[in-house]
Write a structure and sequence with these properties.
Number of helices: 1
Number of strands: 4
Largest sheet: 2 strands, antiparallel
Structural class: alpha+beta
Low-confidence stretches: none
Strand order of the largest sheet: 1-2
């Protein structure tokens, strides 16, 4: 059912090996040293070592740390937490002011609507009650009117 396995040799491939080519190291020429006179002659210090040798040389001032690199008296984390708290309080205060403003605006609009209703209602009342006091305009007696083709004839 299945063909008999036949042993076969893997194909031989030509392998080409590349070796890196070393570059000769480049040596940078040192910059020429120019003698420079100091502004002031520093003090020469001599130290006697315990074994009796004397070492003479210039005193070296200790390196002063950069003022920006000094640690602040208050932790950066504490400052960030404080600023975050101040920002949070400012946002909360702003939201309270916004809510108060919206409530005041709603009350103002309600008062304007009430005022308009009172004025309009007063105007209607004046129209109703003043019409009976004097006879002005056209009065139509509906019982005597004759209606022909949607027109009134008296």
């Amino acid at each position: 059912m299945y063909p008999e396995p036949t042993p076969h040799v893997p194909a031989q491939r030509a392998v080409e090996v590349h070796q890196p080519t070393p570059y000769p190291p480049t040596v940078a020429a040192p910059a020429p040293v120019l003698p420079v006179q100091p502004n002031a002659v520093p003090a020469v210090a001599s130290i006697v070592l315990p074994d009796g040798r004397v070492v003479t040389g210039y005193a070296i001032n200790p390196a002063q740390p950069d003022p920006a690199a000094t640690k602040p008296p208050v932790s950066r984390t504490a400052v960030n937490v404080a600023l975050g708290g101040i920002g949070f309080l400012a946002v909360c205060g702003g939201l309270i002011l916004l809510t108060s403003f919206i409530a005041a605006l709603t009350a103002f609009i309600t008062q304007l609507i009430t005022l308009a209703a009172v004025i309009f209602g007063g105007w209607i009342a004046v129209q109703i009650f003043s019409a009976s006091g004097h006879q002005g305009g056209t009065t139509v007696n509906i019982r005597k009117a004759v209606i022909k083709r949607n027109k009134f004839y008296s």
